[in-house]
Amino acid sequence: MLVRSEPFTEVNRLAQQLFGAPSTGTWSRPTAMPADAYRNGDEFVIVFDLPGVDKDAIDIDIERNVLTVRAERRPIDLGEQAQAALTERPFGVFSRQMFLGDALDTDRIDATYQNGVLALRIPIAEKAKPRKITVGGHAEQGHKLLDS
């Protein structure tokens, strides 16, 4: 169902985790978007962790079976007097791409967002579902059965 994940995105994510990334003079942690993907009956489910992201800051696109999820985690306004003592929560715009197989009905994706978790449910296409083929016809129509 899921063809593969974008390899460069995975390399960039690893590099950010190992080396960090400069952010306004300090070093921040990577802006990862962890995901799980699994088949559940007649649908394929992809779940993304997006803690601290507002629902209106999520953008989901699909083009030619490439699913792109973009999200923006905005910094919290602490006021003018606040001085940061620890900044580990990344903010900014980040995205994730996944290549979906042809067996999915990408015209009927359902997206829900609750408690910082984005869930995409994609139905399995009818043409990809297993089906029973019946054998018909008669032996007298030009084909003879061999006697044992």
Automatic annotation (TrEMBL):
Residue span(s) of domain SHSP: 26-138
InterPro entries: A-crystallin/Hsp20_dom (IPR002068), HSP20-like_chaperone (IPR008978), Small_HSP (IPR031107)
Matching Pfam families: HSP20
Annotated transmembrane regions: none
Entry superkingdom: Bacteria
Alphabetized PANTHER family for the sequence: HEAT-SHOCK PROTEIN 20 FAMILY MEMBER (PTHR11527)
Family that this chain belongs to: Belongs to the small heat shock protein (HSP20) family.
Protein name: SHSP domain-containing protein
